[in-house]
Input
Amino acid sequence: MDNEIKLIEDIRSDLLNSLSDLTNDDLNKRIEEDRWTIIQVLDHLYLMERSLTKAIQTTLAKGEEQEVPSKPIHYTVDRTTKVDAPPFVVPAEESLTLQEMKEKLNASRKDLLTFLHTTSKEELLKKAYPHPIFGLIRLDEWIPFIGYHEKRHLEQIEELKAKL
Output
């Protein structure tokens, strides 16, 4: 899982670096009426990572073994296809500081990495969890998906920053 961990860590680093020149007011500013604030995008990423970590753990423990072909999850970064977030990963309408958000993101990442360091890729290859667009995705592919999903939203953040 070293390559997958490096991928998600590199993308997270890019994400956090993109925020360094923003104030807490910038992060919480509603730039467009029908879009999330930057802090809400970050909260969505936190909620997604937390829920996927739990889903992967539960599926690994209780799911049935099944052979599922590899999916082109790298297409996750293609923002030409709009995907509505499921309700459980829609961020709240609350203002947060960058520090508070970093703490949440660090906590969800720590939980994911702790799990990955106690699990083998071979175990993750045997089970799958459904995605609304890709269908069943093998558990090992959900790890890079988390990174590609963050990269997708990093582009969204860059668009929002340009409009500040």
User: Anything to note?
Assistant: Residues 51 and 62 are 16 Å apart (CA to CA). The first strand starts at residue 128 and ends at 131. Helices lie at 2-17, 24-28, 38-62, 98-116, 121-125, 139-162.
